[in-house]
UniProtKB/TrEMBL annotation:
Organism listed in the record: Hymenobacter volaticus
Sequence ranges assigned to domain 4Fe-4S ferredoxin-type in this UniProt record: 375-403, 407-435
PROSITE patterns given in the database record: 4FE4S_FER_1, 4FE4S_FER_2
Pfam families: Fer4_10, Fer4_5
Keywords: 4Fe-4S, Electron transport, Iron, Iron-sulfur, Membrane, Metal-binding, Transmembrane, Transmembrane helix, Transport
Transmembrane segments: 46-67, 88-108, 142-162, 174-195, 229-251, 292-311, 331-349
Organism ancestry: Bacteria, Pseudomonadati, Bacteroidota, Cytophagia, Cytophagales
Name of the molecule in the record: 4Fe-4S binding protein
The keyword Iron-sulfur is annotated on this UniProt entry: yes
Length: 456
């Protein structure tokens, strides 16, 4: 038997109540799968809403049973022994199902002339009444995706609130991502469509929502949004991308967006929470992170500049080059990386694969945080007992324990300020601070010459 298995308590038996709740979730998934094959539209719609009720209600009740009744605190027992969270059979099946869902959604669910959405046709049309009520138009595959996405954030957000109820910071942060996903990324864009205005997501900015500053999108917003709302949408996008983001990051670090507002981060912090320990902490993974994420940022900056140069008339010959590049970026990064890999690989690579390796917004915010922000995580090395809880919960692949042992503040571009390292620490060694930039690279304890030599 391995030393890891010896150091962990045995897996607990599943209670009768838990089995009943898991049965309800399973029945919900079964009902949801039958919707796609049901030719009766009314019956399919009923099955769809029954399925969502069973899955959502069963998951919330199960989360209360697991986390809401016992002692509060971060519990990391048996994470690597469970098949679902230790890259076992259940994790692989989950990854295949999630990946398959994204593949079908992106490339096999576009409507034909008769409004047929392929394999998801009945699932999409089951949302027609809701779509007519909210958006005054029939449902499409993106409303189906948005509904699933938002429910995942809300339901698993409820789980997170029970699990981390002892931490005011985690509770407020979780409520924040739930609010922005439901209000700004789901309901508000639908209401804009109801008023025959452009579907606009006020919580997404360039370079994450890269096309918002493309010439074609800007023209569309100004035309269809009108002289008032359209101008405000373009103004909001420009100001938040180039003025609001640097100012907020200066005071609060990238956490103001990645852990409090962003929908990608919201899904990672709620639905992806069971997989946060899977992030690779090795230095080789960090090297790949740097090699991939910053070229992606440079690529989207270059594409945006080329499109504007072509649209301005200064270099019209660039149009045949810029357009294919933008489409290639949308396919490779906007679809494959952010969706298929970014979410589908949660159970295998952790919940922040996209944020860590592919998101240009994370790269942009990270550069600001690393070099200009007041934010840092301070450590007290004298109190560290080297338990490793902080490193285990870091979803961004930072070996936090190494900083804590040396009493060094954590100034890393990849850190999203989720605060889980501080929440998991049993000794109060780590603290999230927004102090003056002066001295933020200095540790709370003296670093000896040998340590400096090793760090260099």
């Amino acid at each position: 038997m391995s030393s890891l298995a010896l150091s962990q308590p045995p897996l607990s038996d599943t209670s009768v109540t838990e089995k009943m709740l898991l049965t309800a979730i399973g029945l919900g998934l079964l009902a949801l799968s039958t919707v796609a094959f049901d030719a009766d539209a009314d019956r399919a719609r009923l099955s769809f809403y029954v399925a969502l009720a069973l899955i959502s209600g069963g998951t919330l009740a199960w989360a209360w049973l697991k986390f809401g009744r016992g002692d509060a605190g971060v519990k990391q027992d048996n994470l690597w022994l469970r098949s679902s969270t230790g890259r076992g059979a259940i994790a692989w099946i989950t990854a295949v199902v999630l990946t398959g869902f994204y593949v079908v959604l992106y490339w096999y669910s576009s409507p034909d002339d008769q409004g047929n959405f392929g394999p998801f046709n009945q699932l999409v049309h089951a949302l027609d009444p809701f779509s007519q009520w909210l958006r005054h138009k029939p449902a499409d595959q993106w409303l189906l995706y948005g509904t699933f996405y938002t429910l995942a954030v809300l339901v698993m957000g409820g789980r997170a609130l029970w699990k981390y109820r002892h931490s005011p910071y985690q509770c407020i942060r979780t409520v924040s991502v739930m609010f922005f996903q439901l209000g700004f990324a789901f309901l508000l864009p639908g209401l804009l469509l109801a008023f025959q205005k452009p579907e606009y997501y006020f919580s997404y900015f360039w370079p994450l929502k890269y096309d918002y500053l493309f010439p074609g999108t800007v023209s569309y917003l100004l035309k269809d949004g009108g002289p008032g709302l359209g101008v405000f949408m373009v103004f909001w996008g420009v100001v938040m991308s180039f003025i609001g983001t640097p100012i907020l990051t200066y005071f609060y670090g990238k956490r103001w967006y990645c852990s409090w507002v962003c929908g990608c981060g919201g899904l990672a912090e709620t639905a992806g929470d069971p997989y946060r320990h899977l992030s690779d902490k090795r230095r080789g993974a960090w090297r790949w992170e740097v090699r991939i994420i910053y070229p992606i940022l440079v690529f989207i900056v270059l594409i945006t500049a080329l499109l504007w140069l072509a649209a301005s008339g200064a270099a019209p010959s660039l149009q045949p080059v810029a357009e294919p590049l933008s489409k290639a970026y949308g396919f490779a990064i906007g679809s494959v990386f952010s969706g298929v890999v970014g979410v589908g690989f949660y159970p295998l690579l952790g919940n922040r694969v996209w944020c860590r390796f592919g998101c240009p917004m994370a790269a942009y915010l990270g550069l600001l945080q690393k070099h200009f922000s007041r934010f840092r995580i301070t450590t007290n090395g004298a109190q560290c007992i080297s338990c490793g809880n902080c490193s285990n919960v870091c979803e961004m692949g930072i070996d936090v324990k190494q900083y804590a042992q040396r009493g060094e503040p954590i100034i890393r571009a990849s850190c999203v300020g989720c605060g889980m390292c501080s929440t998991a620490c049993p000794r109060g060694v780590l603290n999230l601070e927004n102090g003056p930039r002066k001295g933020r690279y200095q540790g709370s304890t003296l670093i000896h010459a040998d340590s400096l030599r090793i760090l260099s």
